[in-house]
Amino acid sequence: MDNAVEAIGLTKQFDKLLAVDNLSFSTTKGEIFGFLGPNGAGKTTTIRMLTGISRPTKGTAKIMGYNIQTQSIQAKEQMGIVPDVSNIYNELSAWDNLVFTGKLYDLPRELRETKAEDLLKMFGLYERRGEKVQGFSRGMKRRICIAMALMNKSSIVFLDEPTSGLDVQSVLIIRETIRKLNQEGLTIFITTHNLEEASQMCDRVAIINHGKIAAIGTPEKLKRTVQGLQSVEIAFETTPINALSDLKELPNTREIVKAGDKFRLFTDDPSSVLVSVWNYAQNNNLKLVTVNTLGPSLEDVFVSLTGSRPATEETNRGVKTK
Fold first, then answer.
1. What is the DSSP-derived secondary structure letter of residue 310?
2. Could you give the CA distance from residue 271 to residue 255 in angstroms, rounded to a whole number?
3. pLDDT means per 10 residues in the chain (322 residues)?
């Protein structure tokens, strides 16, 4: 059996709401698998069924070959779960949180203490092992949550938004640790809104929308499905106040997106847009500091399939109406 997770016709009905609609997919042992979708798409409901928290209306799910409903003990022994809400005990120290988790998994004392030491060192928290976690930063608490999920020698770990809202140092530590654990054979199932993170880390991703799988495959394969979404990315040394409205007037641009100090001009003809951008800069005495031609991103695939763009960019979005 090469499948780590297998969903077969998973369906969840809440009164008149069909939250998950006959979902079928599988993940391979040893891969990092991303599960993406807009809010309300059915991600959380699916994860709750896969991990045995919620019973499906119809269908089945298997974890490492074990049916999550009929072989729940064997299935749950295979998994670690890191929810989006912290499940640590603030009144306990980092060390005591891990040791207590080891007791819950019925690990022998020597083993649980060895694992607690190894995991705290792995996540860069061993020197602070004796401190109560209530004084830890959000990122440090997140690292403790993941370490707790690994105390039972999991074969697969479900991570719900593992780096959402964290400081840069914690994000880098968590991503590097996830890669290291995966290289050691751990299967990782990540639910995330961070499309760049999914593109960089995941072997495959599934995009769910309205309770159904809209697409599944490697990030690069999915990008090729919207190959027509070419773009030119530019940034000026000093950005004019009217730059967005001015750029919308350039010929052969279909859409303009502002992201930070950069502008992304979507087009079917990048070469002509490059000429127009250069002329615009020359005519307005502007210095270009970034000029890139880009193929489609995983975000473009996401938008194409779901019609939803992350809110951080949506407010700065300018659509050409000419």
1. -
2. 16
3. 91 92 94 91 91 94 94 92 85 96 92 94 93 92 92 90 86 90 94 87 94 92 77 92 92 89 91 94 94 84 76 40 36
User: CA-to-CA distance for 30 and 128, rounded, in angstroms?
Assistant: 31
Return d(Cα 23, Cα 182) in angstroms, integer. 26
CA distances from 190 to 59, 69, 84, 237 (A): 22, 22, 11, 38
Spatial contact of 115 and 123, defined as CB atoms under 8 Å apart: no
Task: In whole angstroms, give the CA distance from residue 146 to residue 119.
Answer: 9
C-alpha distances in Å from residue 40, one per residue of 26, 258, 295: 22, 26, 29
**100 lies in which domain range?**
3-219
Question: Into how many domains does the chain fold?
Answer: 2
* CATH number of the domain within which 138 lies: 3.40.50.300
Q: What is the pTM of this model?
A: 0.79
Q: In what order do the strands lie in the sheet with 317-319?
A: 288-294, 230-236, 262-267, 255-259, 317-319
